[in-house]
Specification:
about 375 residues; 4-stranded antiparallel sheet; single chain; conserved putative lor/sdh protein from methanococcus maripaludis s2 fold; about 25% helix
Length: about 375
Amino acid sequence: MRKIILSIIGVLLIILSVLFAKNLIANKNKPKPVREKVVKTVFVDTVVNGNVKIVIPANGSLVAKRRVELYAEVQGVFKPSNVLFKPGQKYSKGQALIRIDASEYYASVQSAKSNLYNTIAAIMPDLRLDFPDVYQKWLAYLNGFDLNKSTPELPKLTSDKENYFITGRGIVSSYYNVKNLEQRLSKYTITAPFTGILTEALVTEGSLIRSGQKLGEFIDPTIYEMEVALSKTYASLLKVGEPVKLNNLDKTETYKGVVSRVNGSIDATTQTITAYIEVRDESLKEGMYLEANLDAKEEQDVIEIDRNLLLENNQVFVIRDSILDIIDAKPIYFSDTKVVLKDIPNGTVILKKSVPGAYAGMLVKPFKNSENNQN
């Protein structure tokens, strides 16, 4: 039985060997497939050097150019008024923003003014006898003295004797003490320095206001500034008065601005220079985020292409006799999507769109309807 099994296995091995040999002979006689040469069709552009205006993009939020932080210099109770002290409330120039109760302090001011009046009145007999030439002017001063109005300026002292006499009676020091009290009394009323709008209110009517307490913020809503940080490369290009185009993030609204100020120093940390763009428009609000395009300068004899066409080591693909080649280029300016190049000869045929897997020596076919005009 064992001999029969070995015989069968031997016959099977012989048959398999014959079949394998026939298969090898058949494959050897088959011709090898010819690999087709693939020629990619590419979009090309012919270089025509010209002038390209360098536009620097920047962005930032608007801040009112004229803004005032309101602080109290005196203490008292916030008196109610016809106009509520609330955010969004408009005030005209000179209109009272806040009135603090000053009845107690006002009484002390009136007392000081009365003392000054009495002191001057007490010396009038002496002036009439010893200084008859100045008596009339001091009499006129007393007649024009009104306790309900601001204290008038003292008559001008014309001689040393008069000066010694008036100063010796303490009239000059009393006068300046009264003026100091009147000056402080004026701080119980805070008026609008310009026509504007209240953007922040930290107190309400009837609350106790303390000296040094912040009360709110007041801005002029007709003029705004946007602060932008630009590379130090453009420090010498920015000029005050240059027009600037601005737009919102949705690109639905455009505004006209102007460079109002340029910082004289460069930030040592970021190596940027700060410029301020002034813009006026009734629809603008403080805090709005805008994009600006600043016209820096105009470069001559350059072209502008997509950034993805610039290779490493500042090189670009060119086409010579349907074969890709690489030449050097000199980048002048980079934007988000474009790059401005110099030193590329006129008439040079370059790629208009990037080609995946492109390499020097690659065989290509220019697209017939490709526009041979510089973008």
